[in-house]
Amino acid sequence: MKALAAMIAAAALVWSASAITTALADDIDLATWTCRQFQTASKDDTCVILAWLDGYYKDEDDPPVINTTQFAANAKKLGDYCSAHPDIGLITATDKLFQKE
Hints:
The chain is mostly helical. The chain has helices spanning 2-15, 18-23, 35-40, 43-56, 68-84, 90-98. α5 crosses α6 (90-98).
């Protein structure tokens, strides 16, 4: 369910404007990205990454709903954290911020 939600959200972003598909990088390996790379990425890449992260950190049984208010709050939280910790790995940062216990 988590992977499906992430794929749907990412696909919706990509299909929303045909120009996005030409602007996106071929592959984005989030395991190797730092907060600095995330913050300096293109707007299109950032949107896809945020959508993927939103789905990744949802529980398997969560409903297939994107809470736009929470999404925006999480994006701001990640941006603030990455500003303060530019050399930390992106997944390390998101695990710290959004991992459910």
